[in-house]
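Two quick folds needed for the group meeting slides. Do the first one here.
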Amino acid sequence: MSTYYQGKRATTYNRTWKTFSEKTLSATLEQIDKPGLYEKAKNQDQPVRILDVACGTGLLLQKLTQLFPQAELYGIDQSADMLDQASQLLANQPHIHLIQGTLKSDQMSTLPYQPASFDLITCTNTLHYLDDPQAVLRGLRALLTPHGQLVVEDYARRPFPFPWRPFEWLIKHVDPQHNKAYTPIEAQQISAAAGLHVLSSRNFSAGWMWRCWVIRSTVGQQ
């Protein structure tokens, strides 16, 4: 969750990244086990609970509330300006709760959510910002209900002949909080090291410049 997205960058985000967002969020939604969540909704007394981590302008939350209209949805993001955009987009949706917060490896235990609270957690286009992605995913794992699912998506580090090193240098020059992009295999390894069991994964393109991956995991056995 990067504070790079403030001011004009926040207000123009949806226009600037329209095609990229459509493709990455569509891939994320396709990876969710929707029948499993619908079954949970029928068989438990309380509504399905969904958390979108680094929710940005709320585009994914908007799509999730359309898919799961009875669910309780939560969004957290570091940027107050991005949350302002989300609040406008999601106005008159009392079952969606937005808060400002950060994903830091040493602060995961301070997130204002109880363990085993969420049936679904999503996290899109964010892993490359994290200081310790394994620790953050472990923290998110603790927030999953038994058999809950974590769906993580991000753009991938591209192999030769793509000039990745100068490309990533340019990304860091524009957005200094960028840390590191991961290959699909590395992302699965990080998930497994965090105690998650990878159920499915998919690689896809979000434009000629961007190669992406999306992974669905659940609470693993330790």
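Then this one, please, same format:
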Amino acid sequence: MKSRYRPALYVFMVLAAAYLLAPVGWMVLLSVTNQAEALSVPPHWTPENPTVDNYKAFFQPNASQALIGADAIAAMPRAILNSVVVGVSVAVVNVVIGSMAAYSFARLKFRGSGTLMVVYLASRMVPAIGIMIPLYVVMQNLGLLNNLVSLVLVETAETLPFSIWLLASYFRTIPRDIEDAARIDRCSWLRAMVKVFLPVAAPCLVATAVFGFMSSWGSFLYPLLFTSGPESATLPVIVSNFATDLNADYGLLSTSGVFAILPPFLLALWFQRWIVSGVASGAVKG
């Protein structure tokens, strides 16, 4: 890139980062702001009297706690556990089923493979709101309403097409020689895939798992539709309960939002190198 364009590029990057991070920063500031100051007009861009009472409310619930957030705070631990169970399950299923399907697309030649891949990707273009009623009827007939299994099935169906495409694109970049060498050593195709092929594709597998986890972790529509009680509600649904038709505790709402974004943020930060490597290789070379 020519040097005269670099200043403009840096300015654009700073503006883009500010645009993306400003809502998160505002949420963090509100989490240490009391309710009266949060509702002040004009708004305070920085809290004049910072407080950690909103965080204490989650770890030290007491009788003086605002009634609008009492039930939601009590349901938070179970909601976090439910979100973790659904997220981990979706991630595991995406890696297991996605890797098998992607291996078939990458290594086997069969009629209609290209068309089938297009159909998989086209299914991602269907808006969730357009199929939520049929899905609700299906889950009702299967007796899976208010059950985490329904969320795992639906979130897997939502994320699996992209996972297959990403993994198949990455698998095509792996030389066949490593598989041939394993087969010469009398490995079956399944053992060669598990012991030799998949370890080489570890960056893309990690990227796929993180993608599945983060997609299900932040999902709101399906958990709201398929669950009706705190025993099966996920974190986004419980966070929304801090706001009602009559009032909203913006401090508790923002604090719960901070708790909600921490796991995916730490996960992405931890596996950043592998995610970038897996996504870049699978998307560009495919």
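Slide caption for protein two: The chain has 14 helices and no strands.
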